[in-house]
Amino acid sequence: MKTAFELAMERFGGGPLKKYTDEQKAQLAELDRKFEAQIAQAKFAAQDRLSKAGDDPAKIQQINDDLLVEVRSLEEKRDHQKQKLRDSF
Description:
The chain is mostly helical. It has three helices and no strands.
């Protein structure tokens, strides 16, 4: 009987897990750190804009929506760059 992990890997076309060297892991971790820093900057900027928005619900909602879009965009870029890096290994 197969585990849930094995079934999921079959469904998504994944083969055996690839082993990475310490250097490759460090490169992937560096990308994570880079994008986590950018996400943190976006959150700080949004917090600053929220403090200046006052009690205007429309502005608050717009700032939150903008932050959500920016964070998703950064996460997608990070995932894309990590996949490109993995493909180059």
